[in-house]
Amino acid sequence: MGKGRPRAVEKGVLGHNCGAGDSQLAGCGVGSLALPPAPVFYPTDDEFKDPLEYISKIRPQAEGYGICRIVPPKSWNPPFARDLKTFTFPTKTQAIHSLQARPPSCDSATFELEYGRFLERHLGKKAKKKLIFDGAELDLCRLFNGVKRHGGYGKVCDHKRWGDVARFMRSDRKISECSKHVLCQLYREHLFDYEEYLYKLSFENKKGKKCREKIVCHEKEKPLNRKRRRRDSLEEMKELNRGTLDQICEQCKSGLHGDVMLLCDRCDKGWHLYCLSPPLDRVPSGNWYCLECVNSDKDSFGFVPGKQCSLEEFKRLNDKIRRKWFGQSNATRVQIEKLFWEIVEGKAGELDVIYGSDLDTSVHGSGFPRDGDPVLPTVEADVWQDYVYSPWNLNNLPKLQGSMLRVVHDNIAGVMVPWLYVGMLFSSFCWHVEDHCFYSINYLHWGDPKCWYGVPGREARAFEQVMRSTLPDLFDAQPDLLFQLVTMLNPSILQDNGIPVYSVIQEPRNFVVTFPKSFHGGFNFGLNCAEAVNFAPADWLPHGRFGADLYRMYRKAAILSHEELLCVVAKNARDNNVLPHLKEELCEIFISEKSYREELWKNGIVRSSLMAPKKHPMYVGTEEDQTCIICQQYLYLSAISCSCRATTFVCLKHWTHLCECDSSKLRLLYRYSLAELDDLISVTPSMSHVTSIESRHLINSQPNTFSHQVSVTMIKKVKNGQVTFAELAEDWLSKACNLFEIPFSNSAYVAILNEAEQFLWGGHDMDPVRHVSSKLIDAQKWALSVKDYLFRVESSSLSRNDNVGKISLNQIDEVLSIDPIPCYEPGLLKLKGYADVAKKLVTEIRKAFSSRLDIGKMEVILSKAMEFPIDVEETKILAAEISSAKVWMRNVQSFFFRERPRAMDIGSLNRLMSEMADLQVQLPEMDLLANFSREVDLLHSRCKEILTFPQKLKFTELDNFLKDADKVRVSIPELELLRHIYSDACSWSHDFYNILDNLPDREDHENVVAELSGILKSGKLLRIEVDELQLVEAELARSCCREKAVKALQLQTPLEFIRDVLVEASLLEIKNEKLFLKLSKVDTEAVLWEKRANSLLTNGGSMPEFEDVLRASSHVYAILPSLSDLKDAISMAQTWIRRSQPFLTYNRQALDDLGLELGIEDLKELVTLSKSLKVNLHSSERLEMTLNDIYEWEHHACLLIEDATSFLEEASSFTTVNHLILRIEELLCRANSVTKNGISMCVVLSELPKLQQATFTLQWTLSALSFCTRIPLAKDVDNLLEDAHHLPSMFAGCNLVQLLLKGATWLGKGVNTLFKPLNSKRCTLKEAEEVLRELQKTVVPYPVMVAHLQNSIEKHKSWTLNVHEFLSQPRKRCWASLLELEGQGQSDAFDCPELAIVAHEVGEVKRWMLQCQAYVQPLVGNLGSLFMELIKIKESLHKALSIYGSLNGSRAKSFCVCFPYDSESDREYTCMTCEDRYHFACMNDDCVCPFCINTKSGGIQNGETALICQGNRPELKSFAKLVTDAQGFYPGIEEVTVVQEIFKLAKECQSNLSRVVDHANTHYNDFNLISENLVCALKATAVAGLYDHDGGHNLQTALSRHTWKVRVKRLLSGVKKTTLQHIQHLEKEGLEMGIPHKDHFLLEIAELKQICLHWLDMAKKVASDFGEIALSRVFELIIEGEALPVQFDEEMKLLKTRSILYCICRKPDDHRPMIACDQCDEWYHFDCLNLREAPRKTFLCPACKPFDGEFISLPSPVYYEERSSNDGEPKTPACHESKRRKRTGKVGSCLEGNIADTVDQMNFLKCCSEIDHLWRMKRRPLQRPSRKHSNLQSLYQLLPFSTCN
Prior knowledge:
- By secondary structure, this protein is α+β, with helices and mostly antiparallel strands.
- Among the domains are: 30-105 and 315-543, Cupin (Jelly Rolls), CATH 2.60.120; 217-283, Herpes Virus-1; 1104-1175, no CATH class; 1183-1341; 1425-1551 and 1567-1583, no CATH class; 1703-1838, no CATH class.
- It is built from 63 helices and 33 strands.
- A hairpin with a 2-residue loop joins strand 4 and strand 5 (136-137).
- Helix 18 (562-572) packs across helix 19, helix 44 packs across helix 47 (1295-1314) and helix 59 packs antiparallel against helix 60 (1671-1683).
- The protein is flat, with a radius of gyration of 60 Å.
């Protein structure tokens, strides 16, 4: 919850962190999170009334858990206020598999840059362009972060975590063991040194090492590959000295304070140390990169906004994910939680879900009812309103009484306005703490539960440390990771590190409360909807201060100002529970503000001013304050500003970072003085502040003195010593009081008020200063007002410009009314004189109004007032009165005196009359207007009388009145209404006559009726009488009758309607019209049809006759009364025919397909119904015959059922089974015949099911009797018994059925006894004998079954006797006899102890063989018998022993050690060295085996050690176990014997191998002998069929050490030079192998490394000394370098270049300006030749032409001792062999003439050093040799040049 947080600014990220615990990320038991539950509370209805009070009550118990659950009472059941069908919301996509197991968003380019710099600077090599791993390019950046995530290289190796590292890099591929090993080697070779380097840097930074080499203004040399601007020119050096920088901080946008500016080593952007998040105290060691360069936008991780989703779409996606991961089964919560953490840790695949999170309820709606929301139709209005104002409604909770957020009027989403959350399965809310450490409360409206995890607030710091140590790479890339809410961590990791974690399962209608500073997170079990909001009771205040400090440290913008919140709450504080917490926080603010302000004063910031007041000071959030550009916090209480950056502010803590101006130019801005803050703390008597009371007491008693308790400690140094704050204030008071006594001077007041600014912010001891300062400000304002008013009056009297710029009399009176006057101002008396004159003018104007003068006199007075220099209010009134009178007069004249007068509106007339009454001026037009007004009033009253008269006015009377009214020019509404009435009457009369004239020709009678109806209605609504209304009514009646006639002819109407229309036409005298004659004809035809139909219905007839009459009705165009009866008769007959059709044409198959059943009752009903039909039918007789046949069948069926029942009851004797079978077959034959006849009947017969049941019973008894003559199958008996359950109840109790059922039951037991399935348990002998006895007792005889059971019992007894005989004679026991007994027992024996003993003895041996097969199978597969494979292993061990025998000088030649199991018949080749035979594929091109190749080279390569463990061979310890387990087995088992022989041979091989390894480890001299012995051991190990793990490891170690020694020996021999890196690698490799430190070769390689490093340091020093070191020393270093076995190409090149000397000073190139002789090509320094300019033409050195032109005086150079030797001083010959090369910009020597162009050539010399360097590098002529000593002649040949003759 809370606002989205901005990302932090830059911080160094590359560091070494090996703190990740081994158990943190490896194998966490996600499926068994043994987390203790958080407390659950069940409030009563009374406790549930006040949320804040209840939470305060449970806080002591719950806060220690950080989280708790509240289950509301059952009465709490708020409705969900959103319509689920129309509810849509935006979503975010969450990659659940990346919440923890994701790589950091590191920019690989930055990593490669830093890694390359490390290689070049510390290892002297360049990074490889591309490394291949597992078929793809290896990302070193991701590999490095993966190892860092798992604790560093050491821990990854110790705990075998390379598989996890590989999955971290590429989670989509399987990792083989070989890939893990390769990845380890790549990291060890390329990144391990870099890890160690970063660890050292991190250690240095932690120790606080102060390294200033990276601060920009002190940077003197350019680091390797680091971008820095060159400052070689003189102008740039001056700019550097002035401290001017062109680098701007990316955070505060300031280029100042360059001494603490840190530049990124990639992009060169800058950040101040104090602007970073979190800030740094010092410059970090090593290179530093900003977060923009460290992080890659491509790999950045976050929750991506998704699509707008409806709830139905969201639910479908949730169900799809559930089916994907759990199928159709209902997963438990434990299973869901286990799978969630497996996905989070990257162990169960990838999963993307969507989550409707952080939905602003002010936009998307709340789940709780709110005031103003529409009430849902399913909720009662009273219930809705109850929950609208409920305190547990999260829309109300933050604003309750006692909440600190009550004063916040800004709708902050998530804090003041709840957020809605629509979750699905696995959607999660990551670990976070609430904004400002608020409380939070979450309510689950509906759906599946939520799973919460909480960490108590007291463990917040430890939680962060565990997160950082577990995910170091993520936090290095993003230090503010926990602010971003995108990271999860398994709670079990936190538990393992001692962090208490508690869990909560939130069910629907439950609240979850999190406490301040508590980290919490969780996920959803499925589709649900929840709502959450923050709140802040009084006990939150200390935590709020912690949250504000956290924002300040991370440079993050706060949601609201904590200081403003405290101050506003203090102003509104009324709750005694709030005051104690509030006092403590306000005291902290007071102390902080006081200390900061005092510090500012001591540092010279004396200017101060109040901040602009807020419009709504009693609320928070209505106006936004400025923020500090450094820490981004709101500046509510105070701020610092400077005129150089007017729109920029900082807090008091960061005042030194605002600008570089002097502190006297800075200004303190404050909202409250310390005295006001003190008063705020003392808001109630219970919170009285001692200091404030004492201060007030001192102020009241001594107004001009100060309390020295506070001010005396504030001391400032001045020129003459020190002065206290109080002394300065007292001095200021004395100066301020003197100002009131002297004439006003604005400059003096400004100066004294500016000086007072340093005291106004203080406490109550500064109240006198504030009081006097306030009086000074009032006096200044008053005096300036007097001066300003007087100046403006005098200026207006001179200019006489109307009222422009005049001062009003009220303003002057306001200034003059102040008594006593604040100060002495001389212009006050003069201003009073002007005011008196103005008052006299006011009196004159008022007198003119009261006298009602004419307009001319009024204008004279107005002119006088306008010329007066003071603006009088009455002047405006007079001018307005005169102007109104003139406007009125023009309006009246425009009506009466214009050429074409128009009618005046009565409203305008009344308005003119009203204005005339208000005028205070006399005008001549007033009488004329009054007479006209009286005439209009008479006309108006007459119009009203006409309109209100109860009777309608005649048309002619109204016409005459309107003609008289047209003579008066006035517009009256009533008159216009009368005119409108008259016009309507005329229009109505015209419309009527138009219709009447066209009536005879019209046939649209319906339209005529509508028009006449409208005319009639309109005429009745007229307000005057018209004579045509009666004509309209008569014509309307005729038209209506015609309309009815047309309707009767167009539509079929009842016969009565037609007759009524004809009667009405006769009355209206229009029956002879053509329309009514047609209607009369229709009436006649209808009467004739009615007579015919009634006759047929009465007497009856055939179906054709009825149908003929029905067809005739269609020709009669009227609704006939008898037509319905006729149709009913026909319909009834057709229905009878349709119902009787199945009985007449019976088809059983068709009826079954249609699912129809014909009942006998239906047949009877049809027969009865046929007698009542009016239509005569012939099928009724056939139905009567069918009914009689059915009655006869039922009689035969009943007789057969009685016979079967009596037989089943009476049959009880089984002596003649065949007789019973014949009787049953006879009954079955009869039953089948009757059943067949019944099925052919056309109706459903009630006796047919009974007959079928009897048939089924007879068939069952027949099957049961058949078992008496044979042994049935168990399946047949089971089927018989199963069918017995379905026997009809009426026959199941019969005697014969019961006897057969009992016999069949025991028969089934007997069958199961004899024929038991193989996998089922056998029965015992006792059970078999019991079954035999029961079968013999049964009434039903089973002779065959009894005989077979007796034979099985005899076989079992015989087998048991054989077993006892075998066990009683130990000497005759053998494996073959045991197998024979085991086979007989499986076929003949019942369940008995003897069978178990035999099975146990055989099972032990078989299990041993299976175990042996498991050991052998990985080597040979499942190709042959176990015995043959053991023989092959035995033969391979004999071969291995023969190879060991070669150490003694005798051995038979073996065939292919590499593939010992291949057939010797394959094509073979003999090794040219050892004469062993090998396959062609195992040999090289020279026919030498791989073992002998290594023997010739003097060592064993590590790659060949794979032969030690060739294939998946069984281990020796496995065969040792087999030998132990086989002790006590029966003799005669061939496999046991072979295994014992194999083990014996393997032990001999083990002994030989130990002897070889011991010899290799203890002898160092004879490398050839050791190599031969190791090769033999390697061959023997490779050919052996068993693998000894310990022996193989020892052999591999011996091979590695021997190979290392061979390589070292070869290197020390100096045959081929190597690199220093190779030597260092060899040394490190030897130490890792465990070679002792005192080993000869290890000591030799260490000594060589030290010699090389010493030589390298000396070479670098000599190469850059510019000639300081003697030349002889240079040659010595060259000789030493050539003698070393290490190759130093670059350093040797530098030394040889250093040996070349130039000029007469005989020094190497030291980058000074030089010039070449155009004859001998020798180079000379300008200063050695005293040259100040370059010659314009040619230059000849003094050796070539010493006296050409002007004489050049050469200085005497100072030589070293070597250079002063005469015999060693060489000449300076010119190299004539080399062709002279011309260079751009080179000017030849010109010593002829005068130096004319001195100025131009001096400009050339200024940049000579830069140009000269480039010049000589590009076009440098061949150099001559330097002077050499005589004893170095022999070394001359080593130099890269030759002497010129």
